[in-house]
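Consider today's protein:

***
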Amino acid sequence: MAPDERAARGRKDLLHVTSHTMAHWAQRFAIDLKASARKKKDEDYVSVGFGLSSFRMVGMGAGFKALDTPEVLDAYQKATRRALLLDWGGTLTPAGSSFYDRRDAADHTVPPAVLELLTAVCADEANHVMILSGLGRDKVEAAFASLPNLSLAVEHGFHFRLKGGPWQELIPGVDTSWRGVARSVMDVYATRTHGAFVQSKGSSILWNFASSDPEFGAMQAKEVQTTLTDMLSSFPVVVRTGKGYVEACLREVNKGAMATCFVHLCGAPAPLDFVFCAGDDSTDELMFASLHGAYGKDCEAPRLFTTTVGRKPSEAKAYVGDHTDVVQLLESFAQGARRSF
């Protein structure tokens, strides 16, 4: 272990053992035992978080299940007007920590096979397909601009375009003067957290700690989120966390608002009868919640399928194992045939 990392971990551990008694540990242990005894038989539990500072067990209701692929394909084949909303990293391609390092373009590529599938799905006149990403326009355009009839949304929907048309703003003319305050806070934490850096985007500013020590980075990220929330409380801003980053962005600009706008635009003049939405990140939860709010979680018209990638607590109705399951489903969409996975 590097000397700096060893010293940082030592300071954190020393602080913990000198500020918590054995009685506190015993009480925490007893509380956890009692909590486990109260677990309901109709719920599954998964571990969330890392280390003592954030580890917890989270329950998932019995209604949360693996995506029923034959049901999705049957609804897809019967539909005449469809909308597909897809996240990029972690949903269409793998997304390790380097994917979310906005400085590195090496991992911001899409396999040719996936691009071919998207091209085939977009070629169906009944389909409206949108890629929604938190990355900037340059990265998203470099990856997907060559695909005809594909709609794109960047920076969580701050800018979007429909089927190769002109770029538009979800909320035109918004004030972004608050970014100077956020930048000053993030710069302070970036200097004290090895591997962290700050990046400004069109609608937001981001503190990236994906390359930092996992536990120390998570602790610092929590402080960044709390400090920013307090300092930006008078602005129309929300502070969100994702895989390896904390982001301050406009409250009304998010994937949920973009998803609602997209299905509204696609539903004119004739209504949609099939909507499929897939994502893997915490920011994608806003898409699921927004679509459920627009149509109802158990709606029959249109048939709505919300899917998170990875089995974890989610606003989505179902989950798939990883990004390869999403790609295989797109392959079935492209072929227009039933398949089981």
Summary: The domain at 179-250 is CATH 3.30.70.1020 (Alpha-Beta Plaits). Confidence is low (pLDDT under 50) at residues 50-54, 337-341. The radius of gyration is 22 Å.
